Amino acid sequence: MGDGFKIPRPGAGAAGRRAPPAGAAAFLAFSLAISLLPPPGAARADVVELADGTCLEGEIIRDEPGFVVLKLKAGGRETIPRKKVGRLWKGLGLADVYADRARGAEKGGAGALVSLGEWCERQGLRGLAVFSFRRAAAADPECAAARAKLGHVKWEGRWYECEADLMRARGMIPVRGEWAEPGRAAEKTAGLAERRGDWFTPAEAARIDGGGAVELPGGGKTRLVRTAHYRLSSALPPARGIRFAEIAEQAYEAFKEHFGFEPQGVLEGDVFGDLAGFEDFAVGLGMAMPGKLYTHGFFSGSKVHFPYVDDDYTSINYLIHELCHQFECLSGRPLNASAWYFEGIACYIANHSFEGGRLRTAVLAPQKNSNLYYLQHLVATGVAWPLRKILTGSPGPTVDRDFYNHSWGLVWFLANCEEGGYAGRFKAFEAFVHSKESAGRDPVEVFEEFFGPVASVEKD
Asked: Range with the lowest mean pLDDT among 33-47, 290-304, 308-322?
């Protein structure tokens, strides 16, 4: 299915860049988060809000003058004396309580937003806590309480997202989990080989140069895995993290062969160990509400972020999809393509198989290709989209699965159909959308210029 959101990460900066005050982008993200809340009464749940602000979610099975009995969502029952009850939210869930508090906090400024974040922490809403602290920092860039909660550090009047950003700003050089002053870098790196900003032992460097991956020290709670072109912060078990990094490196070669160009420098990403951790991260960015995550990976404008999900094939599919977006967008080439191409080409290349342990991209795996079977179902049931709708469509804020599968089908047809010259025209089309001449052009007009009238292509 892929991602569906392409918004800048609020408050995030690349390594060595100070954290921006999260202005317009963060306000947009806040609006997005509120808009994603279910309408009042949509959630089949009740919440007992205690006098101290603690909330218990479940189903109220008795509401008596002296007590309330709640069947807890997590299991079990709890009898709560009426004197301890602050408010009953019948037919509503914890997300509704958050929405009510968030609307008030937004009017109360940074202090109120910090308090909202602390309330979220007590309820176990980790992602919303982070999002609230980001909102506080946006409302008041000098809000020390919010910055501390986010792990930001201040030096010479500027805030940095983490200690690593601060150390780089001070000119320190990272060497295998330690920081070296410029004058002592040579001492620290003696006998090591440098590869795009990281230092390796001779054996590690040989593995990197051969297309392999190595785990570097100093990754903190996650593992820092490097290949020739990628630096991934991985929460996966060591062996799986190495394997996924090596698959990413093989995907890089496939991208380079397909597009005919490549980015400069090291490409970065976050690999989460499970969907729960990824959801907290996405919620913290204002991209989703708890339990309302409509994406299994996204490219934030600099880094890719994706979780390990049900199985290797699906997870690798998501990985390649997002890496494709990153590769295209950070190549330095213009990219003035419609959404159907942008998402369709990523879906197309992400369909993969392995032969002799090597990755093959842009192939049909008959037992696993959900794009194929879903699109066949749409055609068989007579609800396949007309071509013009595909050309002008959008994945939407909830990631329209139909859009992704139709876009994949269109790209597959154009890239593989030799009859009528579509495959050759598609390569010319790709060259055009990656050129400055494509800026501002109407998507349907450009499509017809390369492939012919929409009605004719649709018939084919």
From this structure: 33-47
